[in-house]
Design brief:
By secondary structure, this protein is an alpha+beta fold. It has seven helices and eight strands, in the order H-E-E-E-E-H-E-H-H-E-H-E-E-H-H. The protein binds zinc ion.
């Protein structure tokens, strides 16, 4: 299997997200699950803005590192979401500012953080679950993702950042951008009394 195109696609997405301020420093990581069970994932301590396709970590289907640099320390997030989201083939995790800010608001519904504000959030993301705060590297993050039983492609880790899966890398990338912009919108409007889309329209849009 020629991995060059997918390696390059991961680096292009990372560069694009970094250049537009969706992530910063060495935060954020991207993975793709290949049809043969191997995983390509961004390395630890790497800037998404400056990835080298040859450096991406390659893991075999048992999760052993078999090529490239050492994988991100946040690999358990990715593994847990792939285990529970059967159709997912790509995952993007960011420490994007507005999503992190929204995750710290009081009174969020952990089963569905954002109200139905816009059609594209409902169509591209659907619902976002909120998980409690865990220290980086805490194995309980993976357990909490397992406990969601694959019901969510979009998960926000409190005081940390979003994790979004997709059928393709492009899907996961556009969904996490939609989530970040939704968080920004939510912070802009605050908790004022607004007109949300009604339940019928939300139900229709989530099926699109
Ligand atoms: Zn993180």
């Amino acid at each position: 299997m020629n991995l060059t195109p997918i390696r390059e696609e991961i680096c292009r997405l990372g560069q694009s997200l970094f250049a537009r301020g969706y992530t910063h420093g060495t935060s954020g990581n991207i993975s793709v699950l290949l049809d043969d069970g191997r995983m390509l994932v961004t390395p630890t301590n790497a800037s998404l803005g400056d990835l080298d396709p040859a450096d991406l970590a390659v893991l075999d289907s048992d999760g052993r590192a078999v090529g490239g640099l050492a994988p991100t320390k946040e690999l358990p997030l990715h593994s847990a979401l792939y285990r529970t989201r059967g159709a997912a083939r790509a995952i993007v995790h960011l420490h994007s500012t507005h999503s992190v800010a929204a995750s710290m608001l009081p009174d969020l519904d952990p089963a569905d953080i954002f109200p139905p504000m816009t059609p594209y959030y409902l169509m591209k993301v659907g619902r976002t679950a909120l998980l409690p705060y865990f220290r980086p590297g805490d194995p309980r993050i993976a357990e909490a993702i397992n406990d969601l039983q694959g019901r969510y492609s979009s998960i926000l880790l409190a005081n940390h950042g979003p994790v979004v899966s997709g059928i393709t890398l492009a899907d996961a990338g556009s969904a996490i951008e939609e989530l970040e912009q939704t968080a920004k919108l939510y912070l802009l409007v605050g908790h004022r009394q607004l007109r949300w889309l009604d339940d019928d329209e939300a139900l229709y849009l989530r099926k699109q």
